[in-house]
Amino acid sequence: MNASVQERSAEFRPASRLGPIGVSKILKITSLASDLKRHGRNIIILGTGEPDFDTPEHIKDAAMRAMVAGATKYTALDGTPELKAAIRAKFKRDNGLEFAQDEISVSAGAKQILFNAMMATLEPGDEVIIPTPYWVTYADIVLIMGAKPVMVPSQEHNGFRLVAEDLARAITPRTRWVILNSPSNPTGAAYSEAHYRPILNVLLAHPHVWLMVDDIYEHIIYDNLQFVTPAAIEPSLRDRTLTINGVSKAYAMTGWRIGYAGGPSALIRAMAVVQSQSTSCPSSISQAAAVEALNGPAEIIGERCQSFQKRRDYVVAALNKIDGITCRMPEGAFYTFAGCTGLIGRTTPDSQCITTDTDFAEYLLRSVGVAVVPGSAFGLSPYFRISYATSMSELEEACHRIALATAGLS
């Protein structure tokens, strides 16, 4: 073999399925901001979707007890009996949903639950309806499976919630799933029973369409709004609904990597087959910690939610005082999704024109060291997302810097 042939054979060729997707823009921005911070820049990062609180002590103690007791071996493929029992109790206690043991799946994070479900069900050419703005992972997993994400815009004047008539128009014979996320990443929008009902009525008229519900921000909800989940509202949809949740957000356990879901046993079995050939069981120690999280005292969840609500109120008020920015009050999660239409067309001090929300996000990072995520990353422009899951002092400084940066535009 000559040298030129050897050189060609050594070239890396990625799988074609990766062609339409790339590394999340959220991760890119966070990585860039972190790199600037390491090199001495005073950077405030408001792009990360994880609580700044630590995992509660009683949960960490349960993990240590499990290690001391030798619970460090492989567990059952998709969750220990103890954790599945805790999840079943949680669904009944918090949501009025009853699941059998074989209707529960546990994975290394809610993201793996999503991946397993789509891998287990989607064929090339199938369609998945995703309301926009959306968490970018939804669409990318669909694309990896060779299926088609069908984006249905949810506008600010509708509270960034899906409209039933738009959903009905988007459904085709190839539609396999509809994904709903409440409270939402990136907008913080939440659905009440009244908001859900027209959407569920559409799904009742299309029995070939399944519903994937991402409830990961269930316990971060404000202003005494009652959290509801579709399978509890419309029991006749239970046998084609996958209800997804996890311990990452409510219990500040993002690094523990435990997500779970309740759904029809046939789907759960198919998801287990996928998991058996990828990660196998989740971490035994993390599962023991998750049992304590779900069964243990819950007061700390409410206390932290109150803290998030104070931060939300501050950030929304501060952004709405800035000329060119408008910000809707989110009902839950820990994000604001602010509009920057009024800044488009303005010019930076170094004569760069702000033509997109990405331009504005880059300007904030470059000029005042504040990292936000442009709305285009979530499928809707011109907006930008702020995660207020950080200290109030950092939020105050960040909003001050954003105000200075926008005042410098002409």
Task: Please describe the topology of this protein.
Elements: H1 3-9, H2 25-38, E1 44-45, H3 57-68, H4 81-95, E2 104-107, H5 110-121, E3 127-132, H6 136-144, E4 148-153, H7 164-170, E5 175-181, H8 193-204, E6 210-214, H9 230-233, E7 241-246, E8 259-262, H10 265-276, H11 284-295, H12 299-320, E9 326-327, E10 335-339, H13 357-368, E11 370-371, E12 373-374, E13 383-387, H14 392-407
Parallel strand pairs: 1-11, 3-4, 3-5, 5-6, 6-7
Antiparallel strand pairs: 2-8, 7-8, 9-10, 10-13, 12-13
Helix pairs in contact: 3-11, 4-11, 5-6, 5-10, 7-8, 12-14, 13-14
Descriptive notes:
This protein has 410 residues and is an alpha/beta fold. It has two domains: 3-53 and 300-407, Aspartate Aminotransferase, domain 1 (Alpha-Beta Complex); 72-295, Type I PLP-dependent aspartate aminotransferase-like (Major domain) (Aspartate Aminotransferase, domain 2, 3-Layer(aba) Sandwich). The protein is 40% helix and 14% strand. It is built from 14 helices and 13 strands. Strand 3, helix 6 (136-144) and strand 4 (148-153) form a beta-alpha-beta unit. The longest helix has 22 residues, at 299-320. The N and C termini lie far apart (63 Å). The mean pLDDT is 95.
